[in-house]
């Protein structure tokens, strides 16, 4: 996608990418706090921020979590699922849900067969703790000596919401000014 050759690219809040290789692709940006992705977009569809939607997330452990809307979305913003549902009808491939609850039912599948989305707060898989006892055979046979590094150079500027925040900019400046790590007290 990032090396060109696509007619249309939909960016769902994607701002951390070098978009210069998209060439002449039509870019549709769906997000709450426009950044690099919105700057490159031909079409911008405003979505609700995470505080403005009742949403379902899967965390890095694979646990399904739900949030409740704290405030109403601003202006013309809509929840991401509603944007994709509306787009699906425009392109003639109408998705089979009209509410967030109906979408969640689709994710769970008939009779709750999806092991990921059928239980909130539980890691996927029927084995539970037993899975930890099973050897991982697909792991590399040698370990690297490379030092662990954070994925982000600046934790306080990892997304467009944080980059737009005066408070987070101050946190970033304070963190970069620290000479030595401080132990927990």
Explain what you see:
Helix content is 22%, strand content 11%. The chain folds into two domains: 8-121, Rossmann fold, CATH 3.40.50.740; 151-178, no CATH class. A hairpin with a 5-residue loop joins strand 4 and strand 5 (64-66). With 185 residues, the chain is of the alpha/beta class.
Topology:
Blueprint: E1 8-12, E2 26-31, H1 36-40, E3 43-46, E4 56-58, E5 64-66, H2 80-90, H3 100-108, H4 160-163, H5 166-177
Parallel strand pairs: 1-2, 2-3
Antiparallel strand pairs: 4-5
Our count of helices gives 5
Structural class by helix and strand composition: alpha/beta
**According to CATH, what is the class of the largest domain?**
Alpha Beta
- The strand order across the widest sheet is 1-2-3
Work out the helicity level. 10-25%
- Taking all Cα atoms into account, the compactness measure Rg is 21 Å
Low-confidence stretches: none
Order of helices and strands: EEHEEEHHHH
| Strand elements, count | 5
Report on the biggest sheet. 3 strands, parallel
Shape: globular
What count of structural domains? Answer: 2
Q: What proportion strand? A: 5-15%
Find the CATH topology of the largest domain: Rossmann fold
Which CATH architecture of the largest domain would you pick? 3-Layer(aba) Sandwich
How far the N terminus sits from the C terminus, by CA atoms, comes to 47 Å
Provide mean pLDDT, rounded: 81
């Amino acid at each position: 996608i990032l090396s060109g050759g696509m007619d249309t690219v939909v960016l769902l809040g994607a701002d951390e990418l070098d978009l210069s290789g998209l060439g002449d692709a039509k870019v549709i940006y769906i997000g709450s706090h426009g950044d690099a992705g919105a700057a490159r977009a031909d079409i911008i569809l405003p979505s609700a921020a995470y505080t403005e939607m009742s949403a379902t997330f899967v965390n890095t452990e694979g646990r399904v979590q739900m949030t409740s809307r704290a405030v109403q979305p601003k202006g013309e913003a809509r929840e991401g699922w509603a944007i994709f549902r509306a787009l699906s009808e425009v392109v003639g491939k109408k998705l089979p849900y009209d509410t967030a609850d109906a979408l969640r039912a689709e994710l769970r599948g008939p009779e709750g067969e999806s092991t990921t989305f059928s239980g909130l707060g539980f890691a996927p898989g029927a084995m539970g703790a037993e899975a930890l006892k099973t050897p991982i055979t697909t792991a590399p046979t040698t370990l690297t000596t490379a030092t662990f590094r954070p994925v982000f150079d600046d934790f306080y500027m990892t997304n467009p919401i944080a980059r737009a925040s005066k408070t987070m900019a101050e946190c970033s400046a304070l963190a970069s000014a620290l000479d030595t790590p401080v132990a927990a007290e």
